[in-house]
Amino acid sequence: MKSPRIYTYKVTFEEIPHWYWGVHKEKCFNDGYVGSPCTHRWMWEFYTPYLQILEVFPNNEEGWKKAVKVEKRLIMPDLHNPFCLNEACGVFYSLETLRSAAALGGRAAALQKNEDGKSVTSLRAAAATHAVKDTDGKSVVAKKAGNRTKELKVGFCDPEVQSAAGKIGGKISASQVWESTKDGYRGAAGLVALHNLRRGWSKDARVRVY
Questions:
Q1: Phi, psi of 21 (to 5 degrees)
Q2: Could you tell me where the DSSP H helices lie in 131-203?
Q3: Nearest to residue 198, comparing CAs of 132, 165, 154, 150?
Q4: Who has greater pLDDT, 109 or 8?
Q5: Max CA separation in the chain (angstroms)
Q6: What is the DSSP annotation of 95-147?
Q7: Phi, psi for residue 65 in degrees, rounded to 5
Q8: Which of 2, 79, 104, 193 has its Cβ near the most Cβ atoms within 10 Å?
Q9: How far is residue 5's CA from residue 9's CA, in Å, rounded to a whole number?
Q10: Quick one: pLDDT at residue 67?
Q11: What is the pTM of this model?
Q12: How far apart, in whole angstroms, are the C-alpha atoms of residue 53 and residue 33?
């Protein structure tokens, strides 16, 4: 009875030009082994694999180590070949595997949420963007936003808002309390006017409470 072997091999297919390199330690002689793929296992099931034994080694620990070294020499030149079905060799991975991992990692990161349900990735990106400073130490993003606000004349850059803000002191007593007729916001007359304008309402949508 023949003893189990350790050998390197190459799997090819009758129907397609792809191949697969590997090393195998038999449990019994000629055990019918035809490779152990993970990513492309469906090809072994769909097509007809043929195993070619390349080199046989002593069935011991030293023989296994030598076989693994030979397997590495076989795989490395073909690792990025689109017809080679090996996805990795030790710590080295095929380009297809790396691209798939990057895509999955990106999707997983995008799905991560904080306690408020906001994307962790988006928040980190925003923080990194706002961290960029100009020569004066000011946020580049904030500075651009401020310039844009001035161009559009919105918010505090709205002439009507500035006019209302100028009336806060002097002309109207601070003891007076006014209320927005839109949402019940209370404060000094000028503050209520600003409150309304910021929300797109008329500054006159207010009444004096006392």
A1: -95, 150
A2: 140-152, 159-166, 189-198
A3: 154
A4: 8
A5: 111
A6: HHHHHHHHHHHHHHHHH-B-TTS-BHHHHHHHHHHHT-B-TTS-BHHHHHHHH
A7: -60, -45
A8: 193
A9: 12
A10: 94
A11: 0.44
A12: 11
CB 178 within 8 A of CB 190: no
Closest Cα to residue 84, out of 23, 37, 27?
A: 37
Angstrom distances, CA of residue 162 to CA of 17, 80, 90: 75, 65, 68
Residue type, 145: A
For the record, the structure tokens of 58 come out as 């002593």
Answer yes or no: are the C-beta atoms of 167 and 190 closer than 8 Å: yes
Percentage helix, strand, coil, to 5, in the chain?
A: 40, 20, 40
Burial of 39 (0-12, 13-18, 19+ CB in 10 A): middle
Residue indicated by tokens 């949508």: 205
CB 35 within 8 A of CB 9: yes
Which own/partner contact pairs does 53-60 have at CB distance under 8 Å and 24+ positions apart? Answer: 53/7, 53/8, 53/9, 54/7, 54/8, 54/9, 54/10, 55/7, 55/8, 56/5, 56/6, 56/7, 57/5, 57/6, 57/7, 57/8, 58/6, 59/3, 59/4, 59/5, 59/6, 59/25, 59/26
- H/E stretch holding 187: strand 186-187
Q: What is the mean pLDDT of residues 21-48?
A: 87
**Hey, is 43 helix, strand or coil?**
helix
* Confidence at 177, pLDDT banded by 50, 70, 90: confident
DSSP state for residue 78 in the 8-state scheme = G
Q: What is the pLDDT of residue 12?
A: 94
